[in-house]
Amino acid sequence: MRHGSDLYKSRKLLESLSSPAIDIVKHLTPESPLNVYLEILDSAFGTVDDGDDLFAKYLNTMQDNGEKPSAYLQWLQVMLNTTLRRGGVTASDLDRHLLRKFVRGCWDNILIAELQLEQKKQNPPTFAELLLLLRTAEDKRTSKASRMKQHFGISKPRVSSHYQGIHVQSEEDCNPSQPALDHRSEIQDLKKQIADLQSQLTRITQKDSRNAKSAARPVASQTASTHPPAITTPSQRLQPHSRDVNNNTSNRPRPWYCFRCGEDGHIEPQCESEPNPSLVAEKRKQLREKQLTWDIKNGASKPDPLN
């Protein structure tokens, strides 16, 4: 009976294989044991790491983000079985390594505390027992979250419906046959009323503005007729100009030469050169021309006398 079962498994395995895996086991006869097929396939496609490397990878495997604790435990079990086949661990230490690694690599500390997994390290449960504990705890959490969502999802419309019922009774003289008003229709009515009020306010504001402008025109014309325009005297018109002239007097050209020798850069008391009347006269002429030009440009009436 067992021999027939092995042949059936071998046949099913061959039917499920495709190239290149089927090419590797073609030389085997259909009567070959199943473990022979598995050994050849594992040698061709299995991992080539030794037991120590696999155990190191196993110890560094942590729970991924969003991964359920039960799924993480199953992945640890697969890696631990591979490590066992490569001689990385012994069969007697499987449950102990599995529990310790799960407690270390699982991020759900609340679940670990609820199941008291830290206290079970001395007498660890088997893989099947631990998996059942995790799935049961996950199912309880899922059911509780669903009930809570359903409760809060129903309670909100219930309060709103009760409020609408009271509002309808007060408006319709407590007539139970009158259906409750729809909440959305009430909002639309309120929006329409607000828009009407805004348009009325705009019309009133525009009307008041026009009335104020029309009332201001006669007052302005009356004021213009009773108060003639002020007459500006020539002295008043020239007063700002005279102030500007006084302010700019300091900018009027001044002598820049020596009155003794006619050279630039020093004054007469400090001059040690010989007198040069012709050069002094020429520089004085240039200064007068510059001052005259400045007076005409700035409107000065009386130029300062030259030395």
UniProtKB/TrEMBL annotation:
GO molecular function, a single term: nucleic acid binding
InterPro entries in UniProt: PNMA, PNMA_C, Znf_CCHC, Znf_CCHC_sf
Biased composition (Polar residues): 220-252
Top-rank taxon, per record: Eukaryota
Annotated region described as Disordered, given as residue ranges: 204-254, 267-307
Stretches that traverse the bilayer: none
Keywords: Metal-binding, Zinc, Zinc-finger
Basic and acidic residues: compositionally biased ranges: 281-292
Domain CCHC-type residues, every copy: 258-273
Name listed for the protein in its UniProt record: Modulator of apoptosis 1
Organism listed in the record: Merluccius polli (Benguela hake)
Taxonomic classification: Eukaryota, Metazoa, Chordata, Craniata, Vertebrata
Annotated gene: MOAP1_1
